Amino acid sequence: MEVPFANLARASESLRAELDAAASDVVSSGSFVLGEQGAAFEREFAAACGAGHAVGVGSGTDALELALRALDVGPGDEVVTVANTCVPTVSGIVRAGATPVLCDVEPEAGGMDPESLRDAIGPRTRAVVPVHLYGQCADVDAIREVAGDVPIVEDCAQAHGAALRGRGAGTMGELGCFSFYPTKNLGALGDGGAVVTDNAGLAERVRLLRHHGQPARGSHVVSGVNSRLDELQAAMLRVKLPHLDAWNRRRADIAARYSAALEDTAVRPLCRLPERRHVFHLYVVDASNRDAFRSELERQGIGTLVHYPHPIHHYEAFRALGNGGTRLQNSERLCGRVVSLPLYPELTDDEVEVVAQAARAAAVAT
User: Fold this and answer.
1) Long-range CB contacts for residues 95-100, cutoff 8 Å, separation at least 24
2) Best label site of 91, 135, 235, 301, fewest CB within 10 Å?
């Protein structure tokens, strides 16, 4: 039995009738941008996150840019984030006009290391962007102790439904930023994103910025951009949102099965930390002999990916960010060892068993 790393067609097919009906409703409405579907999804998603406000935007990268701009972060300012993350985290900072500064991650789970953050913060720091990596929240409380009055913008692109000490991802900082890219725990059928916040003023600022700074037709009060969650994607997300909790529980069940299979092997799942609700956007293991481990799984028909093969400062576009003086050894170590196994709610029990046994066999063999 072959098990691909992802199967988005299967995910959509399970809700095909509802998605088709929602798309038909949007087409019949004649309203395609900033209509009732988007407004309804914003209300529903804010409630699901436990936030006062949600603002739909064009992508997760846009969400980060607009959240930072809502805080008046711009040229001459620095924003601290982690070196072990997806490039869009840093792209959002750059697009806001600020300079990214990298700090390290904790060695066992990959979340922002508060002590490394302490070394990276400087007099020009205007925001901190922790990443809730792989579906597990960074310790925002510890990060807040270090950051003090510096605003926190949470990167929640992989953390739909995750929580820390009873608080939902996106609600612990000044703003939280989500992506609805199709592979996410809550994925659209195209690009999309949202900014959540309890601050009505910041929410209104993001609304202005996403729509060319236009509070009403013919009136532009700030210089904004075009970044709006369209009605079709909002409708798709409204169909999917009621299923999010059940999908996350299924992800956790699959992760538990994999972890049990890998017990007493040299391949270790990244640490699941206490006081957190992990939603397992990805199931990531630490494998010292990664290439051999992946090759053995490929031989058995199991798809894998690496998230992420390089820390940010090893990419050509961002090499200058490695000159800040902060040691990034944990990020560099993890990027050389991590492997992601197939994990999505639509996996059958038989497929889960096949992956679990193949992973154990590969771990023992390599």
Assistant:
1) 95/61, 95/65, 96/64, 96/65, 96/68, 96/69, 97/73, 98/68, 98/73, 98/74, 98/126, 98/127, 99/124, 100/312, 100/318, 100/321
2) 301
Say how far apart CA 200 and CA 208 lie, in whole Å: 12
Q: Diameter of the chain by CA atoms?
A: 67
**Contact assessment for residue 341 and residue 362, using Cβ atoms and an 8 Å cutoff:** no
pLDDT tens for residues 50-99? Answer: 999 999 999 999 999 999 999 999 999 999 999 999 999 999 999 999 99
Same domain, 289 and 142: no
Choose one of 187, 211, 242: the last residue of a domain.
242
What is the CATH classification number for the domain harbouring 280? 3.90.1150.10
Q: Give 168-209 pLDDT, tens digit per residue.
A: 999 999 999 999 999 999 999 999 999 999 999 999 999 999
As a whole number of angstroms, the distance between CA 90 and CA 87 comes to 6
What is d(CA 234, CA 163) in angstroms, rounded to the nearest whole number? Answer: 24
Same domain? For 299 and 325 the reply is: yes
pTM: 0.97
Q: Name the region of 133 (left: φ>0; alpha: ψ -120 to 50; beta: rest).
A: beta
Examine the domain organization and report whether 93 and 171 are in the same domain.
Answer: yes
Rounded Cα distance between 83 and 146, Å, is: 18
Q: Could you tell me the residue range of the domain that residue 183 belongs to?
A: 8-242
CA 149 → CA 125, 126, 200, 204, 354, distances in Å?
Answer: 11, 9, 19, 22, 49
For 333, the token pair is 């170590």
